[in-house]
## 1
Amino acid sequence: MGSRTLVAAVARRVVADEAEGDVFGLFAVLWQVKHELPTASASDVKHAVVAALAAAIEKHRIVPGEFADRGDEKEAFVPWSTSAAEALARIDLACERERDRDVVWFAPPKLLPLVVHKLRMLQSFHP
């Protein structure tokens, strides 16, 4: 299996695994793929992750969005009101900007509507 093919396969598996569970962030998917394939280039990881996310969005397995502060100790997941193509352009741009990777989130549709406690969000990611 070629390097790019392997990266794509790992990205598809990571996205599928995450989509079966809870809400997850773009940063977590990028980190997991890179962690499993440390010699893969950043470019190959990015392209594979974006392609895997695109497939999951198009198949309605995940919904892209972000969290909005409700003013109490909770945040609400707000799905993006964009087309799939516009969402993928935003995801692609966030991959390029490291500071934006933590504002792109995905949720399985079965979890919506979704409100979480802020403390839970901080404890949920353990690289």
## 2
Amino acid sequence: MTDIISAFSLVVSIVALWRSEKAHREANAAQRRIVEIEEQRERERRLSALQASLYPRLSRTERGERLYVVNSGKAEARNVRVKLDGVPLNEHPVAVRGSDIPTLIGANSEVSCVLAITLGSPPPPYEIEIRWDDDSGMDRVYRGTLTF
């Protein structure tokens, strides 16, 4: 009888050891996944600090229409190029000569230029493409439809 109890105790101990080892492996796998997620967040945070984030806004004022390019990112945008309806902004029919978007836009800032939307020019909406460089080293682009 003692041998049966001893054998049963041995089986229970082996099962407990096996379950404990399995729980330990699962906990380690979960911990590794948490570390990977935190490392990914840190990489994304560092990348975000290097990126400009540009988007356009079309506005009517008492002086006419303005195209704003807003940088909501944490880095400056350089070599900014704007196209309306597939042509460079300064060649589009609504462009006002001498009123261009600057090629450098600081972090958390905006720039604008005057547009001449008249009866003789095509009305909004316009397809807009904004391209720029920033410290991320990636080719950055915004594409969308511009309207009031």
## 3
Amino acid sequence: MNLPSSALADYTDTFLRDAPWLRRRVETIAFLDVDTVIRRTTLDVGQAEVGAASEGCPFFPDQPLVPLAMLKKDLLFDFSLRDRSDSALLVAPREVDAFFAWSTLCIAANKLLEPVGWILSTEISLHLRSITFDFPHPEDAPHDPNLQSWGIPTDWSSVDVRLWHFLLGNESFARLLREFTFNFILLKQLEVSSASQLVKFSYQQSLPYSEVLFLEKFGIRPVQLAVTAPAIGWARSNHLLFEAPEGLALTEVELFQIQRQVADTTAPTDSYEARLAISAAQVYTTSSITRGEHLVAVSMRVPIAGYLRAVWLTSVVLAVVLVLARWKLDELLRVMGTRSEAAVGMLLVAPSLLVAYLVRPGEHAIASRLLRPIRIGLCLAASGSYFGAALLILGWKSQGLKDAWNAIATLAGLFAGFLTVIIGLTQLDLNGASKARRESARRSVVILSVRE
């Protein structure tokens, strides 16, 4: 594997362009947290298409190495590849997939250099091999204009430096080099005897764009998590299934394409099919969709039924009790003189019920994040009632007692009002999701323009 293979370059180019042997791709995505998911993918590989595309390749003509996916290089640390029967499969060694990438880059470079009378030097060829095999520099990001991984070695001649700058100045070559700087080709040796084979792989991924915004933390709007979808447009049929985190309901799903240059407003807009359910959201695309950088935005809410409704009703009861206690504070003080234990006990019932809602064993990490502000308000409202009961026990009867009760009742009322607003907004989103479930249809891909 000391010389680049033009047959492998053509094979890899076919894979990068349309991968005709990938008949169907089904990917299930489960959220571990707002920025972490587990992706489980099943591929239906057509062997006839593999045989036609791999003809002339130097490796295993009877059992060709099949490119299945482009994955981040760091996923090699947390990756599982299995067959139809769920038996573990071996991934091709890094030297092999790096040779595929290196051959592709060298042949592409030669096609650019030959028309202007230049040839690819040994130094640049070895530098390309190092880039494809090694991990990117720790400070490099996928969309940085200049990567430290592409740095020029100090022992290069001035001619090599000119050639390197010429290659990087070509947009298509720079895009291909960037692809192989951060990604590797998942290769698997498959039999060509059967008509098709199923291959399954899974890995854990950190999401680069997902975070919970301020309004989402307080439930003013549903939390929207952006999941990268690098394989869209790569198979004849692409099916993404997003599982709802336990204790949350999905309210919307939408597909975006990121444009890092000025978008062509005259170009036709791609379309996809979306289906929404309470516990899952599905996105269907075909090979007709434009390859590019895609994101799927999944919106979710804490459902009203169950925990949220119980907290809301209890907070309303607490607010009513505290407001009535402030209104009848003088009568309450008289009662304290004869039946103090009963009066204080009545004030402690509601906060005791609220505290029971603070801990939910086994709760999903995203649900915990979204319920955290409610729990903080819950603690403050419950603490206010305890504080008011303590003032009565201590025998306060001055204006300070009335001011304290004004603050306690106001705090409880504001918290109950806040929860009422959250309940209303949540109900609106859930009603919209219910309507979307009845009207699942084709939608247009939304273009997001991003300035570098």
